[in-house]
Write a structure and sequence with these properties.
Structural class: mainly alpha
Strand content: under 5%
Mean pLDDT: 85
Strand order of the largest sheet: 1-2
Low-confidence stretches: none
Radius of gyration: 22 Å
Number of helices: 18
Length: 468
Amino acid sequence: MNFAAIIRMLALCGLFYSAAMILCGLVALIAGEAAQLKSFLTTAVIMSTGSIATIVLIAKPKRRALPPDGLAFMVLFWFVSAIICAPPFLMGVANQSAITALHEAVSCLTTTGHSVFPPSDTPLPASLVLWRAILHIVGAVATITFAATVLAALNLDGPGIHRNHLFSLSDNSFFDSIPKVLRAVITVSSICILIVFSIEVIGGIPANTAFLDAVSAFTTGLADPDRVSADVTREARAIGLTVGLIFGTLGLYVLILAASGKVRRTLMDAEVVAFAMAIAVFALLAFLSGLEVLNALGWSLSALSTSGIALVSPASTHALPLALQLAPALVGGAALSAAGGIKLARLFVLGRRVGQEFLRVGYKQSLLTFTFRDRVQSDRTIMGIWVYLVAYIMASVLGLLLFAFTGESFEDAITNTVGGLTNSGSLIDLTSLAGNEVAQILLSLGMILGRLEVLAFVPVLTLSFWRR
């Protein structure tokens, strides 16, 4: 394991967080938020000093970094980032628990979006809301970049759903392959956020609200927790959030394909087709369960994107059957997106194979093949998906048992488990979360496991992985 390269990469992340904290500190200074100003500047100074010292003391590694080194960095990134980003949630707010601060940081970084701090008449400080928005953007960019580089290189998913034309292994170091993808992800994210922001501002929505909506929609999270129960009543907000959620759910591959002008190929892409079918199916089921047509479509989009944004009143959607509330989040979004879940591509491939098996019942000697994005898929593809699904089910059962041992009811235990693994903040029960540090720890681990797509975490549990 190339520990020198991994530590240097983490130190660079620390420098970025320090710069972001200084920006939030300036906002705190302008807003007169003395406690937050002290928190941000103190943490920024400590982190920047430590990061610079680490980079100086650890020489540039001579040994070439490999994809397993990238996997180790990806796993450590989520845990180290949570520790670095937690202090602002501990100092300057009504919180005395380090566990709660860590949980809040993980919720933002993984774009799950829910908050332990309940909405109240006293909103969060403006600098802290900005910090939440920055963490959502960082988490979304990191999620897509890791999927397009680390998971694409390791091909952990069987059919290669993370493969893309932006990524190719460098002859020098694996980490040299990341900047190109990172630039593309940042560019696409910035454009999408700007589009949603422009739609809302032109429609008369205040700039600060439009910015938070744009970030929340594209990252499929919830930058401002005070909006968790807010109904979208303004037409411009509804349009902006809908566009942003579609962008955030379809992800990098589809957005770049659409930007290249290949309209027909974009509309016929496997994940776009699966996304449209899933929206229609879940909206129909919601309509049959009592929601109006537009509300059913809004709920279906919000739930499928695994966001915490309430496009319709949560009071009406909470009346839906439990299985229907869980199903869209389990499906999730595209492979190279900030949305969680099992992913549309895996379900598309699995559905195609099931269809083939039905055909083979009548034509047992036939040789049938199918393609996914111009690549012929084999039995190894299906085996890879089944292994992933088994791991996902095992993680869900384990989470359900652990939450049950904390005293949660079955409904709360299953919604918290699925909400954590799919990074869907709207499913998580907030009423009993405040003060329950055990539940917060379990949720934090579940949210990180969801961002690692479950299987990616398995190798790091073995000593042989770290001894390479």
